Every structure is written in structure tokens, then in C-alpha cells.
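A common beginner's mistake is to predict each chain separately and then try to dock the pieces by hand. The better habit, illustrated here, is to supply every component at once so that their relative placement is modeled jointly.
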Amino acid sequence: MERKAVGGITFSIPDGQFAAIMGPSGSGKTTLGQLGAGLFMPETGHVYVDNTPTNSRKFRSEISNKVAYVFQFPEHQLFEETVFRDIRYGLRRKKYSELDITEKVKDAMECVGLSFEAYKDRSPFQLSGGEQRRVALAGAIVLEPKILILDEPTSGLDPLTRGKFLALLSTLQRTKHMTIVCITHHLQDALEYADRLVILNNGRLVYDLKPAEIRYALEDPAIALVPTPLLRFRKELEFFFPGKIDSELIQENKLLAFITDRLMRIGDEP
Amino acid sequence: MTAPGNSPSIVFENVSFRFSEHGEWIVKDINISIAPGEWISIVGGNGSGKSTFVKLVNGLLQPSLGKVLVFGESADPANIRRIRQLVGIVFQNPDEQTVGATVEEDIAFDLQNLMFPRDEMISRIDRILKMLQLEELRYRPMRTLSGGQKQLVAIAGILVMHPQIIIFDEASSMLDPHTAGKLLGVMSDLHRMGLTVIQVTHDPEELWNADRVMVLNHGRLAFAGDIPTLMKQSDILEKAQTLPPFLVRLQKALRTKGMELPACCGSEKEMAKSIWESTSAM
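With all components supplied together, the output reads:
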């Protein structure tokens, strides 16, 4: 019997939102992302990108101009001789001057933490796995899409690069009003950066929450979400400081500021 | 296969590696000796030489300078068959390391290549499937497995060769947290059984099980030692493009802000209690 990868899903993502798609392996996250990018057509139902239906060949180029999709193994998408040529590949049909192209490639490389001078002439095939991933991501960012869908973009990146990359997505969202859809296993990353958590299980959308509401999904044994060290620590803090720990405190910097600005001053309170 | 006498499981003597004669050094001047049964976690930024290090251990790469010894034997091409049996590597992407049509065929692949007798093959596969709780999957086609299941089958394919050293090169980075936790449990079991476990990871929270941590920074060994020593000088991690675990980051940040905390709070509960005691004393 064939199993549906996803079924009965109805939801919409407003312009400029940062949505994290989560759920166990095999829950349909990648399928959902690829449906959103118009890479698959739904068997039943409709997918709209910026009010344009994806299931018509007529609108295909319109959709591909709006959406950039970064696959789970972006390094498998690398094929040019140099890093520079690989990143500029998507710009080849756009009417930019060579100078503009160089500027855009340079900006995209700096965005993902690759020094333009140090990497532009290197072969993508002699880079480490994490460096290759950054090259592939620069290739998507350089297109300046309206919607960026990324499938597990940070796996294989070192923690500092990962933090910088997620901060970059957040900046793209804020400054360019880009819609970011990020498929991820990292709950803490989602809590730090996303506006919304869409949680799938067995191909169904089971939770659609604000990050501060994560406790509802954590309390559900069917979802098998593992609390992050920060969430476990927050729970312990609630025990020692009952009624004082706000549910919004799910980000490391906010929690630190709360401890130093509020808890450390409890003795000062009248 | 039994490992030779009292030799360390892995020795690197002044090892450096680069892909070509005038290329950049990928690892440089590495000296380390790893005891049999030790659990070593290797951390470092992208391009710091972690994967190159593990490939030098099992002879997938040969050092440009220096010597790599595995249980006292040089990991050079003359010994490669024996070294590969002593050292198994589990990589990040299970799809790139499984070859059989079914789970059983995949696990049997290396044994078949080495022409093991059929009875011996079956008894080894039986034992490993039981140990990893994969018995129900034995006749399943590989293509129907989830990523986590495939990763466990890849581990089974390595364990049937009875290695003395097992290397996990970011083996949990693609798995969901639940499955990653299960994989960590398997690593602990193998460590308890006496295997040398080498774990390359980007997740600072995965360091706590290690006997020693190696920090690589631009191909050089910036630190090799136990966790308490490393956490006292956690700047080493940040300089190597990585991070200390959450609790260590938090303690460091709170101390910077003037909070007095005991030397090391190893659990979330201890940490919360220390903060409560510290604020109560103010």
C-alpha cells in the first residue's frame, strides 16, 4: 500500500515570516518544503506561491523567480570549476553587468562567512563539507528571492558559523522582508530565530505554534520532541523561582538578561 | 580479530597532511596517543581537519609527514586490509554508505567480500541485529528505511567485522533528536564493551560522554584533555569556531556579570539551585 508523504494540510505563511518546519524523520517536512517551492505538484488540493498556483506550467518561471530552494545536501548541487563561477551560475540569465555580478557574488559570500579573495578561485571540490555548504547557500542568497526555503541548512556547519548563518537569515527577513521557511531538527535554533513553529507528524500538521507556546508540543508524547538544555534549565528555574519565569524566556540572551536584570536583583525589590 | 598486546589503539607521531606538494596543510604536526577503550570527541570548525584526521586513522588518506600507528601497526597501504578491519567509520550520510538491497545483505557485504563461511556470517549478523535491536528489519528493503534506521544498519555493517575502533564522523548530525539520542546510547554501549570510540561532532551537548576531547583549529591540535580542564578554558573552543555546552556558556556569562557560582555545575538542576542560592545570599 502506498503511503501519503503529507495529507490534509491547510495553512498559509504571510509575507516576511520566518517559519520553522519541524517533526521526526519521515514526517513529511521535505515534501512540504518541495511542494511550497513548486518542485512537486500536490495530488489533491492546491499550493499557492504569492497567490500564484504552482500546478500550472504557465507560471513556472514566475514561481522559480520568487522562490529559492536549498536542498538538504546543497553541496551536491556544486558543479562549476571555481567557487565564484558556482555562485554566479544562477545570475547568468539576468541582465547584470560583470561588475554588478562580482559585487553580488562578493556580498553573498561575505554573508555566509566566506572571504571573497580567499575562496573565489578555489575549486568547490577541494573544500571541506561545511565550506561547500556555505558556497551552495551563497548561490541561493545571491538570487535575492522573495521566499527562501531551506531544508536542514545548518547540519554540518560548525556552531559559530551556524549561529552567524541563522542570524543572516533573520537579517534577510528583517531588511529585505524575505519569507524564510526553514526545515530543521534543531529546536533551539527554531526557538531563537523563528516566528512560528509548524510541526508535522506522519504527514499531518499537528501543531502550529508561536515559539513561546512550545510546551504544548513538548507535553505531547506522540511528537517525541526532545527539550533543549535551555528548556530543561528553565523548568528547573521555575521550581526554584515559582511564578517568576515567563513563558517567553526561550532564547539564550533573553534568559541571561532576565537572570542578571531580574533574579539577581530580587533582594533589591521592596 | 584480537588486537595486539598493550599498544595504544591510535598513535599520531608528528603527522601532517596536505593534498598536494605545494597545497595548504590540512592537518599539521599532530601528536597524540589514544588508549584502547578510550572515548575521544573531536571538535573544531569547518575545515579544521577533523574528517582528515579520521581518514588518516583508517588509511583512507596517508600522512604527508609523520606516522600513524593503529595498535602498533603502521596505517600504510601494506597493512590496509588489517587496519580497515580494526577501524570502522560511520559517516554523516547513511545513503552514501549502504550498498545492499535488504538490511541483511547490506550487513553481510564486507563479510561476503572477505569470503567468510556462511555459518559464521549468519551467526555474526544474528548477534549484531540483536544488539542493535534491528531484528524486525532483517529482510526489509534498504530503500524503505528512515535515515536513523539506515544509520544503525551502517553501524551493524561495521560491527560485524569486529572492529576495535569505531569512528562516528558527524554520524548524528542528520538525525532527528530522538534518533540521535538513540545513536548516542549505542556509542555508550560500544564504549562499555571496550571499543575505542572516536566521535566527531559539531554539537557541544554531545561532549559530556567523552573521556577526552580533542580540539582542532586550522589543522593543529589546540587541546587534548578531559572535559573539566577544557571547560575551565572554554575560550579554546570559541577560538576554534565552536562553542562550549549551554550550561558552561551560561555560567561563564553569569560570572562575567558578577554572579558568584561554584566551580562547575554539571546539571540543569545544580545550575538553577546555584543561582537560587546566589540570589538568596545577595
